[in-house]
Every structure is written in structure tokens, then in C-alpha cells.
From TrEMBL:
Any one GO molecular function term: zinc ion binding
Localization: Nucleus
UniProt-recorded name of the protein: C3HC-type domain-containing protein
Ranges where the C3HC-type domain occurs: 113-201
Pfam families the UniProt entry points to: zf-C3HC (PF07967)
Keywords: Nucleus
Amino acid sequence: MDSLSHGRLQSLFGMMLRDSEGDKGRNLRMILGTPETRRIIKKWKYRTKNCERATSRNAFLPEKLQKLQPLYYNVSEIVGKEYKGLQLYSLEQALERLNSIVVGTNCVLLSWDDKWINELSLASKGWKFHSLAGETPNTLVLLCSCGRCDTKIYLDLHSTENHNNDNVQNLINERYWEDIVTKSRPSQCPWVSNQFDLSDYHLKEANLIHDITRMQGHETVHFGTSGEITHNSTPLFSQEQLFSLSEFFKCADKRKLELMLRGFIPVEGCNDAVICVRCFRKAFIGSITGSDYLNPHAPWCRYHDETKLPTMITSQLLSAKKTDDIKKRLSDLENYFESV
Ligand SMILES: [Zn+2]
Ligand SMILES: [Zn+2]
């Protein structure tokens, strides 16, 4: 970078800091990680210990050193231990609950709907699979339990007469959502008034990095059967798209690349099967790549629109190329600050 560009960058940095004093710069200040930000995080992360009450003996210390204990609690660790089942923002835990419901119910046909009651909506509200109850298929009900307070709910999603009428089922499921899913817990359970933010689950630019990271680990992924993917109708991805993505991910195996772009990883111990990493639906490679192509994803899955992920990555690559010139980027940034 030449000295002129460096000077312009410094002056922009100064503008960013000045701007961070106002309301508009609140997020910016957080990103910059100023001492003030670190002070605030520290203030809320640690709590002074009440030494009188913290009397648990340390068997490895002599009597005169028993008082030597940390003076602060790490609140983050306490929340992790004491509020098990309530990591509200944890995508990993939401996916664990989702997986438990999908695996627990995949052998029965239930009346899910896209809007109110489905595996994802239940998992987002803190429910996990408990069991299926009932003597016969017609009396089968789904039991879910709360990950936090262990409350259980019964959902009758197996009423055969309702399978024929989506509107009726939607109305029933809406009632289930309002009366059972959100209100069954005791009022002190934090899931009553909270829900995992599903925008973190669905595909958007801000969380595209999850997929890029996943796909960068493609060397360790091996799909069993070999051969070209053929589609009877129009291919899902264009050759140019596959070419630029195979360059980007350094993955010469186009077949593997295509399967991963559609959200699949191999099923352990089964050469011909794949599983989606976000809706946990399984499929044989032949059924999703051959002439009888079908979309195996759940309607609410992050990859249900199978062309969306490669399109988003490709457009990001194109826009990164366009703004590669440092002078152009500086000038865009200057224009931005002038406009605010
Ligand atoms: Zn609860
Ligand atoms: Zn899926």
C-alpha cells in the first residue's frame, strides 16, 4: 500500500472512531473491540464472590491456605452449567434437538405443517424428542420434553382424517402452537418467552461462512459410489458455476462438490446414502442424482432451494473480485462516510 492510500485509510479510521460516539456507531464500536467494550464485557462476565458463603474446602490445600480461592465467579461458565438446555443462541444445541425429533419420528407419518408445527419449530422453542406413545398407529401421539425444565407435551399429529385437509391441519397446528407448545411450561422456564432465532438457521449472507468452512474441509469427506451426476431435466448448477466453485474450494471432484453444495455428507457405514447436515433427511445418492430426481430436504430446510447456496457463494466471489482494488474500496468507504 502506498503512503497516500495509507494516509487515507488512517483518516477513515479516525472518522470511524468519531462516528462510533453516536448512536449509529454503536455496532461499529463493538466490532472495533475498544477498551470500553472489553471493560463492559468483563463487568458482566465476572461477579464478585461472596467469600463468607464460598466455604467449600479444597482437600488438596493445607488449612492456612483454604481461603485462597478465586474472588470472582465466571458467569458464562455458571450459566453453561446451571442453565443446561438453555443456550438460546447455540445453533449446535438447536440442531441437536432438531436431530432428536427427526430421528425419533422418521418411521411414522405425522401431520407436520410448514408454518406452525414441524421438527424445526419445536426445536427452536426448546423441545426435544421424548417418545412416541399409543397402542396403535391411529392413536399415536408425539411426546416432547423441555431441555430445561423437563416438562412434557403430548401432540396428536397422527389424526388420519386430517391428512386430507391441509387447512384444517394448519388450524389445529396453530392451536397446538399457541396452547401447548408455547404455554405448557411453568412460567419460570425461560423458554416460555424465548425462542431460538431461526434467521441463524436459514441461509443468508451473514451466516454463509458456516457453509464455506464446512466445504473447505472437503478432503476428509468421501462419498462411496462414483460416477457422474446426471439429471434428466436441467442441471441444478451451470458448468461455469461448478468450475469457479471447484477452483475456490480446490475440489476437483465435481460430484463431491455438487453433493456438498446441496448440503449433504455421507452416511457413516453406508456407501450409497447421504444425509443433510441441516434437516437430517437421508437419501440414496441414486435417488437424488438420477433420472427420478427428487428433493429430499424438508420444506423448512436451509438447503431446500438447492441452487441458493452455490448462487450466493458465486455472487460473493464476484463482488469480492470487483472490489479487489484498494483505491476503489477506499473511495467507496469515503463516499459512505460522507453520506452518513
Ligand atoms: Zn422448560
Ligand atoms: Zn436438508
